Amino acid sequence: MKDLSVIIMGKMVIRYKIFPIDININLQTIYDEIKQKLAGLAEVGQFKTEPIAFGLSALILDIRVDDNVDIDSIESTIKESKNVSELEVIASTKV
């Protein structure tokens, strides 16, 4: 009989589109703030930008977490950033 007491945890990567509060906000500043706030909770990957409209660009960011981490707490932490207007999950996958 197999020992079911061992739980194998995996990782997942969540890709977010993060919108700044203003077109004048430097996306590198938002990235640095998110990376600092999530230190110890998640691995924050490199970012890229996506033009939206009228000079506004969004931050596209991959965040890698253990699959037992509460994703709502990660998203709440990101939303607490003073320069973030909103965020949207683009994709998520187990790795």
Characteristic key phrases:
4 strands, 95 residues, Alpha-Beta Plaits, single chain, four-stranded antiparallel β-sheet, alpha+beta
* First and last CA, distance: 28 Å
CATH class descriptor name = Alpha Beta
| Number of domains as seen in the coordinates | 1
The CATH topology, please? Alpha-Beta Plaits
CATH superfamily annotation: Ribosomal protein S6/Translation elongation factor EF1B
Low-pLDDT sequence parts: none
Q: Major β-sheet, in short?
A: 4 strands, antiparallel
Topology as a string of helices (H) and strands (E): EHEEHE
The number of helical segments is 2
The percent range for strand residues is: over 45%
- In which order are the strands of the major sheet placed? 2-3-1-4
- State the total count of DSSP E strands: 4
Question: Can you put this structure into words, describing what you see?
Answer:
This protein has 95 residues and is of the alpha+beta class. It has one domain: Ribosomal protein S6/Translation elongation factor EF1B (Alpha-Beta Plaits, 2-Layer Sandwich). The protein has 2 helices and 4 strands; from the N terminus they run βαββαβ. It has a 4-stranded antiparallel sheet with strand order 2-3-1-4, with helices on one face. The radius of gyration is 15 Å and the shape is globular. The mean pLDDT is 89.
